[in-house]
Amino acid sequence: MDLQPTLNIKSYNNQELDYFHVSQASPCLDMIATPLEGDARLDLSIVDFGSMVLIKRRNSSAAIEQYQFAKHVLAIQLPVANGESVEHFQSLLGGLSHSPFLTAGARAHWTIPADMWLYQLHIDARWLEEILGPQAMSDYIELSHAASRKAYDRQALFAAASACEYMLANGMASATQGKALMPHQLHNMITDILLPCIMSDIGDNKTTTRQKILGKALNYVHEEFARPLSLETLAQASSTSVRNLQIVFKQELGISPGSYIQQFRLHRFRHFLADASSVTEAAYAAGFKHLGRLTERYARVFKNNPSSHLSQVMQTHFQLGSLLDMDNVS
Fold this sequence. Notes:
Strand order of the largest sheet: 1-3-4-9-6-7
Radius of gyration: 20 Å
Helix content: 40-55%
Number of strands: 9
């Protein structure tokens, strides 16, 4: 598979983008994000290599991000290369659909902490297999099965993060100089990122009960948010009691299940407004059956009334590589 002849570089700094603008500007990336409080802003540096997109990003507040990747796209999340970041990264949710090493076509959700720099890679698995070979790709799949992020070797994560930093710097420098990277250069850099992880030992950490409960609860909210959701129904879907469900959310996310449901619906409401013919239509689609104080809550989070965002779709787009084309979702 040939690389695109040029690099497409986009950098965003000073927390000028929120999740709505990121998703509207990237229609090829199927992502639903829920800040755990208010409206998160993102610092992003993006290098588009054609067959791979490398992102360095930081959130102003914690969020849950749900992804559906195209059938030939795999995704990886890594910390930046310092001991504190690697240690924090390993304490994030792991197992179930939270794995930082996702296989092609995966549907998953990641917990994004506040004020922590992370790397995110979206890679064409067909191109990657040509570089690594089928055995290495098989070994990569084993990475996605680890029950906890604590199972990954800390030194391997550090080495992979260092290689990401090197790739980002080279991509930016190439674009500034107007010179495309040679295929062998990109091959070497992606190998330096993945091989330390593929070749390292994976610990025998088991998926915790809390991970299972939270994973089931998040999946249920994401699928059923438009319907009435009681804590009793959510607890039953998560195979636990209401009390334990509340404890799990507080321990893992720092908020109650009810607060998460309200945040999820509020941010879905913001997205639905862009295509709705009325505020009421968008509100009902997001699961708000009683409008009541919705306008007040919305204005407090988004600094505008819902009507000001009605049928408001961004006209400027940046495309994160043709490999992310969602027409190829299985």
